[in-house]
Amino acid sequence: MELAKRVKTLTPSSTLAITAKAKELRQAGHDVIGLGAGEPDFNTPTHIIEAATKAMNEGFTKYTPSGGTVELKEAIKNKMKKDQNLDYSHEEIIVTIGAKHALYTLFQVLLNPGEEVIVPAPYWVSYPEQVKLAEGTPIFVGALEENDFKLTPAQLEESITDKTKAVIINSPSNPTGVMYTKDELEALGEICLKHNILIVSDEIYEKLTYSETPHISIAEISQKLKEQTIIINGVSKSHSMTGWRIGYAIGKKEIIKAMTNLASHSTSNPTSMAQVAAEVAYNSPQDEVVVMKEAFKERLMKLYQWITNIPGITCVKPKGAFYLFPNVSEAVKLNGFDNVDDWVTALLEEEKVALVPGSGFGAPDNVRLSYAISLDQLEEAAVRIERFVKNHT
Ligand code: PLP
């Protein structure tokens, strides 16, 4: 049976090959350190789990409204007011099956065939694929390492055509961990307003920031920018709830209504008890969120130091999320490899450290290291990478 054209253009996840290889080595009894994880290593806070259990025991196990329960929408509305000082109505919020599904649904309702979405590179692997699944065209714009991997207003303006529908801004970023400042967002926003381009602001790492500069949503800058922006967020990373699959999109009523209609025919609703869990995550004290953030911060400070001490490796210092995205091109050359992918494969085979090559994120000179594992393991990983580089020099 011939499959649909739309799936033929899908690129398999870049983490897949290396994860499969790491698994194979683990099964053969090797002590593999995996730095590929895209999720916090902490368990979901107990009070959240207990609230979901209670909801289930009380029979909250049935369909809910497609766009999410009134209670969870209210919790999200209050969170937006408290954290961003932004006012939204329930009609401007849709709860989805994780933030990934919010993005997927958004592109489905937004794009006609051939319409373009500007995707600054390095990018999260799912953006281009989701745009393609909606028959849109991802337009990659290489954000330069010299500019801390941030899209400049000039780059944005140059990449706009009469087919441009939206631009994605992901701050803090996966994979680079960099964050845009208020001024930078304002400058990008002005261009989006001038050309009437929707801003898709993926703020899933909002709570994981480690510098003096707090996270700012582009929607906070002005009423006009608020109206031009769809915010994507969720509890996966902030509350260590990746498996619960609760995310959301917030923005213009017409867009949210179309997304809700689509969800009503595709997923019906996000899982009922997971919605209770997310509601409690937002409505209860945020102590665990702060504890997790502090642990990530300590790991970042140490890992950054260890990794940048290795000859041939440089790294833009991340300000958020839980990834380092070092440039290893010098080390790769020094070690006599043709490309980063081969270097990553050899590192896994010889030293049993699994990294994700940057090629899948649109940055072939880099690798992504996740620090969502213990400090001891991170230290051991750094020792092994250093030994690998020295052994090959
Ligand atoms: N956006 C970015 C940048 C991510 O890194 C991820 C998860 O890795 C998501 C969205 C999706 O989050 P969720 O697990 O809530 O679907």
From TrEMBL:
<dbReference type="InterPro" id="IPR015421">
    <property type="entry name" value="PyrdxlP-dep_Trfase_major"/>
</dbReference>
<comment type="similarity">
    <text>Belongs to the class-I pyridoxal-phosphate-dependent aminotransferase family.</text>
</comment>
<protein>
    <recommendedName>
        <fullName>Aminotransferase</fullName>
        <ecNumber>2.6.1.-</ecNumber>
    </recommendedName>
</protein>
<dbReference type="Pfam" id="PF00155">
    <property type="entry name" value="Aminotran_1_2"/>
</dbReference>
<dbReference type="InterPro" id="IPR004838">
    <property type="entry name" value="NHTrfase_class1_PyrdxlP-BS"/>
</dbReference>
<feature type="domain" description="Aminotransferase class I/classII large">
    <location>
        <begin position="31"/>
        <end position="385"/>
    </location>
</feature>
<dbReference type="InterPro" id="IPR004839">
    <property type="entry name" value="Aminotransferase_I/II_large"/>
</dbReference>
<keyword id="KW-0032">Aminotransferase</keyword>
<dbReference type="InterPro" id="IPR015424">
    <property type="entry name" value="PyrdxlP-dep_Trfase"/>
</dbReference>
<keyword id="KW-0808">Transferase</keyword>
<dbReference type="GO" id="GO:0006520">
    <property type="term" value="P:amino acid metabolic process"/>
</dbReference>
<dbReference type="GO" id="GO:0030170">
    <property type="term" value="F:pyridoxal phosphate binding"/>
</dbReference>
<dbReference type="InterPro" id="IPR050596">
    <property type="entry name" value="AspAT/PAT-like"/>
</dbReference>
<dbReference type="InterPro" id="IPR015422">
    <property type="entry name" value="PyrdxlP-dep_Trfase_small"/>
</dbReference>
<keyword id="KW-0663">Pyridoxal phosphate</keyword>
<dbReference type="GO" id="GO:0008483">
    <property type="term" value="F:transaminase activity"/>
</dbReference>
